[in-house]
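Predict the assembly for these two chains.
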Amino acid sequence: MKTINVLLNVLLAEDDPDDVRLAKLALSPFGSNMCFNFKVVGTLYSAIECLKTENFDVVLLDLGLPDSKGMQTLKKVRGLGLQSPIIVIAGLEDEAVVLQAINEGAFDYLIKGRFYKDELRRTIHYAIEHKKIEDALRKAHDELEGQVEQRTAELAKSKQELEIQAWGLKKANKGIRILYKELEEKDKRIQELGKIKSDFVSHVSHELRIPMAAIKESINIVLDGVAGKINNQQRKFLDIAKRNVNRLVRLINNVLDFQKFESGKMQFDMQLNDINEVVTDVYKTMAISPNCREVDFSLKLEDNLPKVRFDRDKIIQVLTNLVSNATKFVDKGNITVATSRAENAVGVSVSDTGCGIRKEDLPKLFQKFGQLAEGNNSKTGGTGLGLAISKEIIKQHKGRIWVESEFGKGTTFRIILPCSKTDSLLNPKS
Amino acid sequence: MGKKILVIDDNEPDRNLVKIFLNEAGFEQIVMAETGEEGAKKAESDKPDLVITDTLLPGIDGFEVCRRIREYHGRNGPKIIVITGVIDAIDAVKARKMGADDYCVKNRDLSDLIKAVKDLCQ
């Protein structure tokens, strides 16, 4: 036996008490899992009032009520827009309209006096199941519709967002193109100006050399006494003139050198050379110069260094410059030129026990015209280009030049010149 | 043309340059503002047809100026061009979202801005 587990609210619109009784009998709970809670009304008016205020699982509607007959009865109930399934109960005289009733939205129909207990029960069961499925379908449909709506709105929003992003990118792109074009023009102008400057400097420098040579030659002639005897005071002043002319010539040469670096016109004659031989050469030349006579000038060579590829004249220029710098800052003390071995490279150092360089001045050292503010240029006779040129030369050799100094104690300039791989194979260490 | 243009820029040389180039392009009625606040106020009181605003301003920035103008006038208010020396796609997007009609770079001869002004004042 099945247990009663469903309680259904049924509205029975029926004016005939016998029919009411029959229906109730047909739907007695015995042997069923459905139990019915009846509300019985005798007129369409009261049926409508009930439907307005209460929810029913199913409506059993007699089409022939005292205040309404036939299809009108169904139409009026349907007109309420209810969700409850309607089962039409019709008398024999209404048989012709029952099919029409289905079209008008009744779930099913039963003919009075012709239906069995089971038939009514089954119809109600189907009506309720059908309603459940319909509800589920409607719900699913509504949900889907909601989702579609939401997605459509989302898509519209992201489309708008994308359009704005694309707009922003387009505008930024255009702006960058405009700025880039202007930058290119500016760059071109700067290059042109650079060339004008470079041409001007080299032109002027060359033009200066010729009269300078004439002045130098004339001073030498007078100093040598070829143009007549000169007294000591005249000699003293001519010496000053000669020293300064020499300085000017050096400056012009340095400017021209630098110009060559900047325009990439500097040529390098790279040959395998023995660094010890070159350093010794510089040492010998400098040792006899008047500046070095006062100081303790020494040479320390590391034996069996590999030969290195470099431009002999340029390296001599760098070393001469370093030693000559050292002599300017050492009155009484030591200057040491040394060679050393490094990894795949040879090292040269020029050390002095001079006044040293302040820490804050070190970065300026290798800059063009980077002479130290406190230094007395007229005394040292520097051009302010020597170290900048040295740095360029070493850079062209893929080497390194740097300075170590302690103010008041002394300075060491160090150079590293690399051996190329093929050269080190040809010249194994020791 | 008879269009009234409000220029908002805190940098005086820039502001004057914009005015000169606008005059040259035939726009005579130019109103100037130095800050975002002043600009937003003049956008209400002076009823310009077009507002040109820099992005970086002391106080409220150019984006906020756009927002205030759009808040006050809605879409029927003046056209707005945001100009900048620091071009940035994110800024352009921001300007657009705040209601700007165009986003231009402050280039040497302001050709980008003048073109945008002419396009919007047609």
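The radius of gyration of chain A is 57 Å. The longest strand of chain A covers residues 334-342.
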